[in-house]
User: Fold Putative tnf receptor-associated factor from Ixodes ricinus.
Amino acid sequence: MYKISLIIPLTLLLVFNVTSGTPGEDGCWSCLERTLNMICQKEGGTSVHTVDFANCKVNCWKPFFGTPSLQQMTLPPGTRCGFPYKVSCWNAINGCAFSGSCMDVLQHFEQDCGFHSTSCPNCDALVLRDNIIEHLKSTCTARVIQVVEAATSTSTSGSDQRAYLEMKQLLEKIRDDHLYLQTSFNRLSEQANIVSARQHESYETGVTRVVDLILEVRTGLKTDLEARIVSCKTDVSSEVSKLNGSLSIATEKVSRYVRLSSAPREQIWVLEDWRNMTDGALRGTPAVTESPLRSVRGYSVSQVVKMAVDASHVLRFTSYIRFHSGPIDDELEWPFRGVLNFRVVHPKDNMKTVTRREDISRWSPEEYFGRPGHGPNSPYLLYDKTAESLENAGFIVNDKLCLSILS
Assistant:
């Protein structure tokens, strides 16, 4: 049997009692060195080992005895490491029953062991950490003993009398210190009141001055603002007069531009729901549809189409143009005169597109081309064709017909 004692930082003493088995199965010093270095590094210090080989029967360490540190040694073949042997927890004297390998004991001691002890601050007795509060409450032998009026007892010993006198002197000193502190506190309170009164007076003076400055600034700003308002009103009136004159000139220029603007513009309208119109007309109810308002040279116009059966029981398609009241009628010439080009656009072959040119003179009927009054004018006929001919010519695609007006 051999005993190894080593000292590491934080005054931790590890004692390993390893019992060798049969001869040749002694401890592996290489494992021991690695374990010790691991423990020391974990504690944040350097390795410091004191090894007692007084009872060791292994001779392999002797050539290295006396060296400053434990060195790695190689055991002969067939030897077995002794460090897997179990060792007990350092708190075994406190009741911990854990046992295991060296590393398991270290991990248990640092993290899991509940039998760590500490000294009572009053009686210096060793107590488990978990029980220290209960110890202080109930079992501590040095709890504070209340002072009794031992000075009045005739059986007071000389040592007790001295203790009483010392206690009395101590209390008198405490009383004097208390009076001194009270006097200092009163003096500080009086000084604080004086300083507070001075600060309050200074605050009131400052507030009064600030209020006077605000009133003075307010009066100055009000006077300046009134003067600026009068000046702004004068400037705005002058500018409005100038703008009114400029607006009149601009309006005249725009009106003249509208009147002179005669660039041709094509207005396209896609007539939808062809089949329902023809079916309704064949049942004896004429179908009439009107396009949204369009601008033709500034004139507000719409296209009107009608599907109806004539006296010969033939379904006919007719298209009209109608003039409506517009926003710039005052700037336009009335009655309307000019050239209107009506087209029935073929969707696939532009050569088959039908165009009707209508020359509107100034002597055209007022009911069609005069300035609209309380409502739109009467529609003016531009195109008349049988519905069957349009269908046979391929003008109807996806139940739609494309119409346009160019002026």
User: Anything to note?
Assistant: The longest strand covers residues 299-309. The two ends are 126 Å apart (CA to CA). The chain is about 40% helix and 20% strand.
